[in-house]
């Protein structure tokens, strides 16, 4: 890399020399200017300044001039001087009051009214951290990760938390100490976290006390606040060190030091913190003790706009491992939790704010301490005035930890003694291990061939090769030849590759019915770090086009095809002998056939590689590879584990080549064809038209349905030896823009519909490469003898390329035209009056800007301007959609019919701009995102995207009068990059009575408003006749699994065939139910007095359990959505019985006894219909206690119509859009949801009944619908016993833990511990599905 190194060094030397000679103080002056600007932003002009004895200067700044209002989202913010309410507690005990603790500066004075006390930032404060940008900010890893926490990140915790709910605040009392902090860069704190979102969408609100010498230049405990909206990346800060938090108190300084702390064994002091969301304004308020301090404006956040999903309390420290040892920094008091009151630090009176704005004790708490020998947690006794409380903390490096070190030293001494007693003891153990491994790999040959390159090739009987040691292949019948060989339908003659022999061919050949296997030697097993890693790739071995992290060591230059299903590939790969710097690195060129992701990633791979550690030389060798779990525990190179079945006696996988390409000279290639045999499911490999062997289909999971990605290209490993980038070559070692051909690909993909045909692929090719300057890729689309795509590996070139073809480039429409709906009042008339503002739903768009990376499936997103507006209508915002599905969407446009309902903006605010990848016109384009600045009394409801830096015309868009708008929140993420994100939006207020209207535009931060229907009179809702027509048009076909024993029935059939009504206290005298349910108790609450059950007689009970598909009917609930602009048809189905669950434990399927069984099972799906046109917008499928929305492009439709197809899972009856297995769990362990097509199928259009439409008087609700009690009895079948019974046959604690986690994640209704309730008690009856 002379080119890179010399250029970089020269540039640095020249720049440094010029700067110093021109002005010796240039750098320091530049820094001084930077510091002054930063100080000016932070230190606002004060009406009074107070010098505190602790060295602080407190500036009393006018409340309207505080730093908060520098934030672009708060430019026009109206300050809220007091909250709308303060949450009240439902506790029956009296809280122990906290002692008031003053801050040190209070001794020197106080700030006047209408000012806020702000701790002045000094020049020295900015110089202490590593950079000014990091001043006052936390690093990324500053939120406790209770399962994935990595202590190498430096942060360690001892906390308790609540999750799995919606939280709107917390109150907590935190013990105050002055912990020892070892070095200034470390800190120790105690706080509460209010959390929502994850990754770059993480939102937090935090408050507590901390000792942080680097930030404050002392070791005093100080009150602090913090916030972030992007996972601590670019937003948020401590206290008022950036704009955001709005302070209203003139008494409390955030960042101010406390004047008194707790003493070990003596008086204890604590601070009471209350944080809650003002549901009227969206702001999050802070109270300390009895003082209201201020608030975090709701506009700052994204996911927290809808409440928090997690609340945590406890301690945190930073461990920098100074001197290579764990820090001695204290957490809390510096004593372990076991010491208890007055010795250990405590957190008491834990409460959360619920959806009713009530303070109550949280449920389902968890605790977490990641370094128990240094810091721990212990829960306190219940039933005291302290409520829920715990002790936490510790001294950091301590005797406990030292004890562990001593024990470890003793182990070392003992092992040393063992070596002295018998010097060969350890080596003997390893020797045995090596011999066993060699025996597994090196099967007895009928002949051995010594090759001139040092290899020994064993000719092993074909039936005795390593493949058949695999447990899945114990009874495998070898397939000697494929069922077919794909042929090409190309119209041009393909360039044929010259046949290249392997080195061992010179020394002999293997007999028929044997396979040539390269012998593994003892030295081969000793080279890698462990025997277990021999012949295996690390987990990071599949290219990720946008999330690839070069620090992982793997770097790529390749192309890929995606977004279709592939059954193979053919490719010609140029053969070279690249230089590899160190034995542990490699350089290769290959093809990847890929399906799945994460731990379910399946790959098949083949190509050539130079890998000294594996082969003990630097020769290029042919290789194969496979994995079924993302390179975790399965798969290997060549035949170094069981799996790949070789059938050829002519080619050795792992064998070296005799000849390679030369720079400027003769070029050599290898021709690889991989394809799936659709008759057997095996994946065959052909090399130079010679069949080599196959990967049995039973090895794979997701590849059983074909591949979703095919990739071709180069890969190297960069270990940064000596701290520098490796000089390992990729390909020829020359850049892609050199005239010499480095990597040539003749790309085919096996046709889906003609599995015996190879077709030239017109697929969405996407270049993939690392972001370094060491390797480039150049792609050309041309028709020559080289075929469709020619790839050159090397540095990223500016060569001409074409934009990828994506799903978004095609517009989706329903399979059949819409019928003419029966006449009615306002339904499907095209326009809806919201009360002075008419809106029209636009479904046609003009593309404005496309980005091809990030977002869903890493395919980017496209932004559109609505087109074909009716006369008199104006834009309210643009439309955006991820690129991973066909274009299908809408936005509303508006027409003023009152004279002042809409107005142009007065200006635009630029939210973001950035470079995209190559777009379709082959020019670099920049997308600019503009937010309209509305006139007073108006609100923006949409954004504009342009491709120029010039502001859009003011008359391009309209803002809406504020009384016609309501609050909205982000819905589904569309795209994000570098902290900027856009999402679809939805109203905050949703449900049958909510008047909020979705605009269909996208939103960023801050969240925009939505519309509101001030004329919400149901006039645009469908009539009964129109409902019937709608459902007959869109009524889904429901497929049940072929093994389904527990089918649905009508409710009347269930009642007529012996269902019984039980009453508490009268269990011995159940009452038969009338066929129409007229004798069921009506209304009231679910008080537990009544429940339904199956017939008592065993024959009748068994018959009713099985249901009756012939009687089945579905029950429709018609709901207005989004202010009556949409209609939800919720379709309910009744099953008399829910069958038992089954678990998948890696390769095994295990019945779970009675887990999952319960009587009376209600399932549903929902069709969402546009009231503008009657067109299907999307479909919701319920899945146990959750569900998912499916858009029409993702729906399978019945042939020749607009009726969707859905699949009910075996026994559990969850609804899915596609057949197959959906696993509730991870890593191939979890609860099975199996679906598939069978003869058991029901057309919901055949028997349906509208049972509820509150806005239609003619719809009479059946009596059973208003039965509000349980539809099944409470069952106690020993849930824990059932789980333990399964665990007995599960091998390994890790597998048991994963299994238990998957089972415990199921809702109670699945366990059957409580009988299910009817439709009217479900959350979505009056609310939205999500």
From TrEMBL:
Pfam families: Neprosin, Neprosin_AP, Vps62. Coiled coil: none annotated. Transmembrane segments: none annotated. Residues 1-24 form the signal peptide. Residues 149-400, 548-799 form the Neprosin PEP catalytic domain. Residues 1310-1330 are annotated as: Disordered. Keywords: Signal. This is Neprosin PEP catalytic domain-containing protein. It comes from Brassica carinata (Ethiopian mustard).
């Amino acid at each position: 890399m002379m080119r890179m190194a010399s250029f970089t060094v020269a540039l640095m030397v020249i720049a440094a020399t010029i700067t110093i000679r021109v002005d010796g103080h240039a750098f320091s002056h530049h820094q001084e200017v930077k510091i002054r600007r930063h100080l000016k932003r932070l230190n606002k002009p004060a009406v009074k300044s107070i010098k505190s004895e602790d060295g602080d200067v407190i500036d009393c700044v006018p409340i309207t001039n505080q730093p908060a209002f520098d934030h672009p989202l708060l430019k026009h913010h109206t300050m809220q001087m007091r909250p709308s309410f303060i949450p009240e507690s439902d506790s029956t005990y009296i809280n122990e009051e906290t002692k008031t603790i003053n801050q040190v500066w209070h001794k020197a004075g106080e700030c006047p009214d209408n000012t806020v006390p702000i701790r002045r930032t000094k020049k020295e404060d900015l110089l202490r951290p590593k950079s000014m940008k990091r001043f006052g900010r936390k690093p990324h890893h500053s939120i406790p990760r209770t399962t994935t926490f990595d202590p190498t990140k430096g942060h360690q915790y001892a906390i308790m938390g609540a999750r799995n709910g919606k939280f709107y605040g917390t109150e907590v009392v935190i013990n105050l100490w002055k912990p020892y902090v070892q070095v200034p860069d470390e800190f120790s704190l105690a706080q509460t976290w209010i959390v929502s979102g994850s990754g770059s969408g993480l939102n937090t609100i935090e408050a507590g006390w901390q000792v942080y010498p680097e930030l404050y230049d002392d070791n005093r405990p100080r009150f602090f606040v913090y916030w972030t909206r992007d996972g601590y990346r670019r937003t948020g800060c401590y206290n008022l060190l950036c704009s955001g938090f709005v302070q209203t108190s003139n008494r409390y300084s955030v960042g101010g030091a406390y004047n008194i702390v707790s003493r070990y064994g003596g008086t204890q002091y604590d601070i009471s913190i209350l944080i809650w969301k003002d549901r009227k304004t969206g702001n999050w308020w802070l109270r300390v003790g009895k003082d209201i301090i201020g608030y975090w404006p709701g506009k700052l956040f994204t996911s927290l706009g809808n409440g928090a999903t997690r609340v945590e309390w406890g301690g945190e420290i930073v461990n920098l491992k100074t001197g290579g040892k764990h820090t001695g920094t204290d957490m809390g008091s510096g004593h372990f939790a076991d010491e208890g009151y007055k010795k250990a630090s405590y957190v008491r009176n834990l409460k959360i704010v619920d959806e009713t704005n009530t303070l109550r004790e949280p449920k389902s708490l968890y605790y977490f301490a990641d370094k128990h020998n240094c810091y721990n947690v212990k829960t306190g006794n219940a039933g005291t005035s302290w409520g829920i409380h715990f002790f936490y903390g510790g001294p950091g490096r301590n005797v406990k930890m030292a004890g562990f070190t001593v024990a470890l030293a003793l182990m070392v001494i003992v092992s040393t003694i063992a070596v002295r007693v018998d010097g060969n003891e350890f080596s003997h153990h390893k020797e045995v291990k090596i011999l066993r491994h060699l025996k597994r790999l090196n099967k007895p040959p009928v002949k051995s061939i010594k090759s001139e390159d040092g290899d020994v090739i064993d000719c092993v009987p074909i039936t005795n090769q390593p493949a058949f040691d695999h447990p899945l292949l114990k009874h495998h019948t070898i397939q000697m030849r494929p069922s077919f060989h794909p042929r090409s339908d190309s119209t041009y003659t393909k360039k044929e590759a010259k046949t290249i022999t392997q080195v061992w061919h010179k020394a002999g050949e293997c007999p028929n019915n044997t396979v040539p296997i390269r012998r593994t030697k003892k030295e081969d097993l000793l080279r890698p770090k462990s025997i277990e890693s021999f012949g295996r790739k690390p987990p990071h071995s599949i290219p990720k086009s946008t999330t690839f992290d070069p620090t992982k060591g793997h770097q790529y230059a390749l192309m890929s095809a995606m977004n279709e299903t592939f059954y193979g590939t053919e490719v010609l790969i140029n053969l070279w002998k690249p230089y590899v710097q160190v034995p542990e690195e490699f350089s290769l060129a290959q093809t990847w056939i890929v399906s799945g992701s994460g731990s379910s990633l399946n790959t098949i791979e083949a190509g050539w590689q130079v890998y000294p550690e594996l082969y003990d030389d630097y020769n290029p060798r042919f290789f194969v590879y496979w994995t079924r779990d993302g390179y975790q525990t399965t798969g290997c190179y060549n035949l170094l584990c069981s799996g790949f079945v070789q059938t050829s006696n002519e080619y050795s996988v792992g064998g070296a080549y005799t000849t390679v390409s030369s720079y400027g000279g003769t070029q050599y290639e290898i021709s690889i064809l991989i394809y799936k045999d659709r008759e057997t499911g095996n994946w065959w490999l052909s090399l130079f038209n010679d069949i080599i062997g196959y990967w049995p289909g039973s090895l794979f999971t997701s590849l059983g349905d074909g591949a979703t990605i095919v990739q071709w290209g180069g890969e190297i490993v960069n270990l940064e030896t000596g701290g520098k980038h490796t000089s390992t070559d990729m390909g020829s070692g020359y850049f892609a823009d050199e005239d010499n051909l480095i990597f040539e690909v003749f790309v085919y993909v096996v046709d889906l519909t003609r599995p015996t045909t190879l077709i030239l692929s017109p697929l969405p090719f996407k270049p993939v490469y690392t972001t370094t300057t060491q390797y480039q890729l150049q792609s050309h689309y041309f028709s020559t003898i080289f075929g469709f795509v020619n790839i050159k590996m090397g540095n990223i070139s500016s060569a001409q390329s074409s934009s990828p073809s994506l799903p978004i480039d095609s517009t989706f429409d329903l399979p059949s035209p819409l019928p003419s709906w029966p006449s009615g009042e306002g339904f499907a008339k095209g326009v809806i009056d919201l009360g002075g503002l008419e809106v029209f739903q636009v479904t046609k768009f003009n593309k404005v800007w496309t980005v091809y990376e990030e977002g869903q499936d890493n395919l980017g997103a496209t932004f559109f301007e609505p087109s074909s507006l009716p006369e008199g209508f104006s834009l309210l915002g643009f439309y955006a959609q991820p690129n991973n599905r066909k274009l299908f969407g809408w936005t509303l446009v508006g027409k003023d019919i009152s004279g002042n309902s809409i107005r142009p903006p007065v200006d635009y605010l630029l939210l973001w701009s950035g470079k995209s990848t190559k777009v379709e016109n082959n020019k670099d384009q920049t997308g600019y995102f503009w937010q309209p600045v509305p006139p007073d009394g108006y609100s923006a409801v949409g954004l504009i995207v342009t491709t120029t830096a010039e502001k859009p015309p003011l008359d391009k868009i309209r803002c809406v009068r504020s009384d016609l708008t309501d609050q909205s929140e982000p819905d589904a993420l569309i795209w994000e990059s570098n902290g900027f994100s856009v999402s679809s939006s939805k109203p905050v207020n949703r449900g049958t009575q909510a008047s909020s209207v979705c605009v269909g535009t996208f939103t960023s931060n801050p969240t925009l408003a939505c519309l509101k229907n001030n004329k919400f009179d149901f006039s645009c809702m469908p009539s009964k006749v129109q409902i019937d027509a709608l459902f007959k048009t869109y009524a889904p076909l429901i497929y049940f699994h072929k093994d389904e024993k527990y089918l649905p029935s009508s409710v009347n059939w269930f009642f007529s065939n012996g269902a019984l009504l039980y009453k508490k206290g009268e269990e011995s005298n159940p009452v038969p139910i009338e066929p129409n349910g007229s004798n069921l108790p009506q209304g009231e609450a679910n008080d537990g007095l009544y429940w339904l059950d199956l017939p008592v007689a065993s024959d009748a009970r068994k018959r009713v359990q099985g249901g009756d598909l012939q009687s089945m009917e579905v029950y429709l609930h018609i709901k207005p959505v989004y202010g009556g602009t949409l209609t939800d048809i919720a379709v309910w189905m009744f099953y008399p019985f829910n069958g038992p669950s089954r678990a998948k434990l890696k390769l095994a399927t295990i019945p779970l006894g009675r887990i999952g069984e319960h009587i009376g099972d209600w399932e549903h799906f929902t069709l969402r219909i546009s009231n503008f046109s009657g067109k299907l917008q999307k479909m919701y499928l319920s899945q146990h206690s959750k569900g998912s929305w499916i858009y029409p492009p993702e729906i399978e439709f019945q042939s020749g119509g607009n009726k969707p197809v859905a699949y009910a899972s075996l026994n559990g009856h969850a609804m899915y859009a596609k057949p197959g297995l959906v696993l509730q769990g991870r890593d191939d362990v979890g609860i099975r949801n199996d679906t598939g097509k069978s003869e058991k199928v029901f057309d919901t259009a055949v028997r349906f009944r509208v049972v509820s439409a509150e806005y239609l008087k003619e719809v009479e609700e059946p009596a059973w619908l208003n039965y509000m009690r349980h539809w099944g009895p409470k069952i106690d079948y020993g849930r824990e016993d059932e789980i333990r019974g399964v665990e007995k046959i599960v091998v390994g604690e890790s597998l048991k833990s994963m299994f238990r986690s998957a089972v415990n994640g199921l809702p109670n209704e699945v366990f059957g511990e409580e009988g299910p309730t009817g439709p009217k008690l479900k959350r979505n009856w009056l609310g939205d599905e999500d």
